[in-house]
Amino acid sequence: LEQANHDSEFKEFIDTTMNKLGQKLSIASYLLKPVQRILKYQLLLHSLADALKKIDLPNDITIESQLAMEFVSSNINKMKREHEEYHCYLYFKENITDIENFDIKNSGKFFNESKAFIEKEEVSLIVFERYAIIIQNIENKLVTKLVISIRQLDVCLSQKKDNYLIFKL
Predict the structure, then answer these.
(1) What gap in Å lies between CA 104 and CA 123, rounded to an integer?
(2) Where are the membrane-spanning stretches (predicted)?
(3) 80 shares a domain with 12
(4) Using CA atoms, how far apart are residues 29 and 65, in angstroms rounded to an integer?
């Protein structure tokens, strides 16, 4: 990418092409967009396989490509989930420091974070595989209100009010 940005001949070709197409994209856009769309290749291959079936042409290579793309996309999705989970752990590990003898690494898989209200005060409910943590942002500092083992957690719907569901823990 760096070399392409400094290659005047290549840059001129890209500029000419962009002007013909009426678009103004950077060289990086041409290189990054296909990578960002890799998960859509599976749909393209599926459509291609269907079209080849309709006109009775061999499509073994298309089916093989579909299987390969399924493998690639499942790995990409798995890596994305792991990356997101890792950043959640880092964020909570750095910002929730007032819990003694609690290691966030032992809390299991991160499931969800959502806002809730306890006695009209907004709190965040962070749900992991083994624990639920209720925290509150007080003066830009996360303060732990409660750590609950999922095994001990009993949740039941209390009532519906103004499009809100109210639960009892």
Answers:
(1) 19
(2) none
(3) yes
(4) 26
